[in-house]
Specification:
Blueprint lengths: L2 H22 L5 H17 L14 E4 L5 H10 L5 H5 L29 H20 L7 E6 H5 L2 H12 L4 E7 L16 H7 L3 E6 L3 H12 L6 E6 L32 H7 L12 H31 L1 H12 L18 H15 L3 E5 L9 H4 L14 E3 L4 H14 L3 E7 L3 H14 L4 E5 L17 H10 L10 E3 L4 H13 L5 E4 L15 H5 L6 E5 L6 E5 L3 H16 L3 E6 L2 H4 L4 H7 L6 E4 L5 H7 L4 E3 L10 H8 L3 H12 L3
Helix pairs in contact: 1-2, 1-3, 2-3, 2-9, 5-7, 5-15, 7-15, 11-12, 13-18, 15-16, 20-25
Subunit structure: Homodimer.
Organism: Polaribacter reichenbachii
Catalytic activity: D-sedoheptulose 7-phosphate + D-glyceraldehyde 3-phosphate = aldehydo-D-ribose 5-phosphate + D-xylulose 5-phosphate
């Protein structure tokens, strides 16, 4: 312990944060100035990692919730050698590796992309669950910690309730969260928007809560020591901090705790940029320097951290020698590879709902993919993830030997937790709910796409055929929203999402195969509540024919020189089969039917293949239980899409099919009317 260099280090972080924002003329300086003391003590005395191996699977992890405090992370990691001077000097600039909000960059210590408040710490909860899951299978030596950093805004976001409830309920003692409580948010002091007792709230969820002066280094040490020794509860450290700690005016007077310091360069406030840098011990002429004593301290620190990691690796090596089979399995989990899976061997009864077919697949996966956590938002017996649950048990406080997370009614929380599980590595996350409630999950789905995470989303009750539950539960516009993500590219230039709506049981098995093999982007399986008539088999097994769905779209019915090509996905494909039977038998028409499980994947195929399935020189008719826009890009301007352009109604599904025109007979009439126009 060196009080002088500890203070210098914290002040160096403050000065760097101020300088980054000032040079960029954009950002949030006040919060990082308040959190600097905690960050320095955490990383210098408690955080375990290997500076020479940043992706070491058994490192501690830091999940930032308050992404607007990115300069706090960049400054701290600059001291640790993860960034260069030019990196911090180019904060928020084109091509820089220091974006305005942190983006996943594990090599430099950034574990998660954050920005939308509340999601960052919830991903941390997911990472802690993954760590507990793995430790239950491989031993208590796997005892790394997950740290979260949250601000007033993150605590206020509703998702914090779900994260707090689940972390406390599961007793995640490996999760330690620092709450930077400075009583200031972007536009107001916090007392203008809340009077809740945050400590009491978290204690009621089963957390250990410690309140400290987070500018007092001894109090920070004591709190972190106590948190690390906790055996039954997650810990919330409420750190009372001062917004803009160290800011002074041009006259040298203190200018701390002001709301205006939150979200703009301090030079635009009542504080003085140059005088503040001087007050913090920085050189205004070279504000991105690391102080001499701080540089020496951190060089020695890096050597110590490397040696500590080496000692831990020796411990792990001894375990590996004593447990070669477990070690091999652990390496396989961490590799992200899949075991050999026989999807064709999964038997399905005739005419199943695709949610029921999915249940059969999940039951198989429960016995063959050991590193999968499936979660449901209080719907396992309806979304049929209970097929998986029946083969395992729910995760419980003190017992993570199971593989099922009962999330309760908390779709967004559940999805964010899945992102955290994926970020941790070694575990495959699956989350399920009704398709209409994907609306609740959208912020996390978006971050799944941005972070390129292989989360599997299972959405059942996929259309108006939910029936009696009425318009609130009948997804109409949701498929269009989700499929937009197939058109949105991630930073690697790939579609940011894979949306799959299978047409029968065989396609459901293929969809699961595609989902599991899709490791670098999220996948959504959109499944029916009602039974679907299996599509006809032309020659080989239905599964073998359905494998063509891996190209996004294929012909389930094909004739030479068709008069019309019918296009759909999901349960509407079977409706087209019924319509085609009428068109052929009663009107002597030749009909092809295309099942397009994913337009995104279909568009990745060669132009020749696309034209062989959906020829542009033929009349094209699409059928969708969602908005017509779902298929308009496939049929083109000359084609026609029959879809739903209004909310649903409460009535039995078969009645709605008839009223809305989704029967074979009524669709055949729609096709005939269309053909009169071409």
């Amino acid at each position: 312990m060196n009080k002088k260099v500890d203070q210098q280090s914290a002040d160096n972080i403050r000065a760097l944060a101020v300088a980054m924002v000032e040079k960029a003329n954009s950002g949030h300086p006040g919060g990082p100035m308040g959190g600097a003391d905690f960050m320095h003590i955490l990383y210098s005395e408690f955080f375990n990692y290997d500076p020479t191996d940043m992706t070491w699977p058994f490192r501690d992890r830091f999940f930032m919730d308050a992404g607007h405090l990115s300069t706090l992370m960049y400054a701290q990691y600059y001291l640790l050698g993860n960034y260069k001077k030019e990196d911090v000097a180019n904060f928020r600039q084109w091509g820089s590796i220091t974006p305005g909000h942190p983006e996943v960059d594990v090599q430099r210590g950034i574990e998660n992309t954050s920005g939308p408040l509340g999601q960052g710490h919830t991903m941390g909860v997911g990472a802690a669950i993954a760590a507990k899951f793995l430790a239950a299978r491989f031993g208590d030596w796997m005892n790394h910690k997950v740290y979260g950093f949250i601000s007033d805004g993150g605590v206020q976001e509703e998702i914090s309730q779900g994260a707090g409830r689940i972390a406390g309920h599961l007793g995640l003692n490996n999760f330690i969260m620092f709450y930077d409580s400075n009583d200031i948010q972007l536009s107001t002091p916090t007392d203008e928007v809340t009077t809740e007792d945050t400590a009491m709230k978290y204690e009621s969820w089963g957390w250990k809560v410690i309140t400290i002066d987070a500018h007092n280094h001894d109090e920070i040490r004591k709190a972190l020591t106590e948190a690390n020794s906790q055996t039954e509860k997650p810990t919330l450290i409420i750190g009372k901090t001062i917004m803009g700690k160290g800011c002074v005016t041009s006259e040298g007077k203190t200018f701390e705790g002001e709301c205006e310091l939150h979200g703009q360069p301090i030079g635009h406030t009542g504080a003085d940029y140059t005088k503040t840098l001087i007050n913090l011990g920085a050189n205004p002429e070279s504000p991105f320097d690391i102080y001499e004593d701080v540089s020496e301290f951190y060089q020695n620190l890096l050597e110590r951290k490397t040696l500590e990691a080496r000692d831990k690796k020796v411990e792990i090596s001894i375990w590996r020698e004593a447990n070669p089979k477990k070690a091999e399995k652990l390496d396989f989990f961490l590799s992200g590879e899949l075991p050999t899976l026989d999807f064709e061997g999964i038997a399905h009864k005739a005419g199943l709902a695709s949610r029921a077919a999915s249940s059969g697949v999940l039951a198989y996966l429960a016995e063959h993919v050991e590193n999968m956590i499936v979660s449901s938002a209080d719907l396992s017996n309806s979304d049929k993830t209970d097929g998986f649950l029946k083969k395992t048990q729910a995760l419980k406080k003190g017992d993570f030997s199971g593989s099922f997370l009962q999330a309760g009614v908390a779709e967004l929380t559940m999805a964010c937790i899945a992102n955290g599980i994926a970020l941790h590595g070694g575990v495959i996350p699956v989350v399920a709910t009704f398709f209409v409630f994907s609306d609740y999950m959208k912020p996390a789905i978006r971050l799944s796409g941005i972070q390129e995470l292989g989360v599997k989303y299972v959405w059942t009750h996929d259309a108006f055929r939910v029936g009696e539950d009425g318009p609130t539960h009948q997804p109409v516009e949701q498929e269009a929203q989700i499929r937009l993500l197939e058109k949105l590219k991630n930073h690697r230039g790939n579609p940011s999402f894979l949306a799959l709506r299978p047409a029968d049981s065989a396609e459901t098995s293929v969809a699961w195969k595609m989902a599991l093999e899709n490791k670098n982007t999220p996948t959504g399986l959109i499944l029916s509540r009602q039974g679907i008539k299996d599509l006809p088999t032309k020659e080989a097994s239905r599964y073998q024919e359905a494998l063509a769905a891996e190209k996004g779209g294929y012909l389930v019915k094909e004739v030479e020189n068709p008069d019309v090509v019918l296009i759909a996905n999901g349960s509407e494909v079977a409706t087209l089969v019924a319509a085609a039977e009428i068109l052929e038998a009663e009107h002597n028409l030749k009909v092809n039917i295309a099942s397009v499980i994913s337009e995104g994947v279909f568009r990745l195929q060669s132009r020749e293949y696309q034209n062989s399935i959906i020829p542009k020189n033929k009349p094209l008719f699409g059928l969708t239980a969602g908005l017509p826009v779902n298929l308009e890009g496939l049929v083109g301007d000359a084609g026609k899409v029959y879809g739903l352009e209004h909310f649903g109604y409460s009535a039995p599904a078969t009645v709605l099919d008839d009223k809305f025109g989704f029967t074979g007979e009524k669709v055949s009439l729609q096709v005939l009317e269309y053909l009169k126009t071409v």
